């Protein structure tokens, strides 16, 4: 059985082109960059807007990994082979 992931935007529209990281933010977190996983799936790097000891997180499918620094989050992306898309990386 294959698992499918469907992505939409905050306003409910389905993007016709590569989505912008800002499409995945909300009032609790701000999406900073989009990466592409080795299998082509989107990966979102976001930062919490509320005070927390681990404000940076990477969303890859249904998995979320939290980091205390931007540097640690970026190193994780590089280690996993994620490729930065043309938009984002505002950290």
Instruction: Find the count of extended strands (DSSP E, 2+ residues).
Output: 5
Mean pLDDT across the residues is: 79
- Give the DSSP E fraction (strand runs of 2 or more residues): 25-35%
Widest sheet, order of strands: 4-3-2-1-5
Order of helices and strands: EEEEHE
Unreliable sequence segments: none
Helix content: 10-25%
Based on helices, strands and strand pairing, what is the structural class? Answer: mainly beta
SS element count, helices: 1
Task: Explain what you see.
With 91 residues, the protein is mainly β. It is built from one helix and five strands. The protein has one helix spanning 70-80; strands at residues 29-36, 42-48, 56-60, 63-67, 83-88. It has a five-stranded antiparallel beta sheet with strand order 4-3-2-1-5, with helices on one face. The longest helix has 11 residues, at 70-80. The relative contact order is 0.21. The mean pLDDT is 79.
Q: How do the strands and helices of this protein lay out in sequence?
A:
Layout: E1 29-36, E2 42-48, E3 56-60, E4 63-67, H1 70-80, E5 83-88
Brief synopsis:
The protein is 12% helix and 34% strand.
Summarize this structure as a short list of keywords or feature phrases.
single chain, 91 residues, mainly beta, five-stranded antiparallel beta sheet, 1 helix
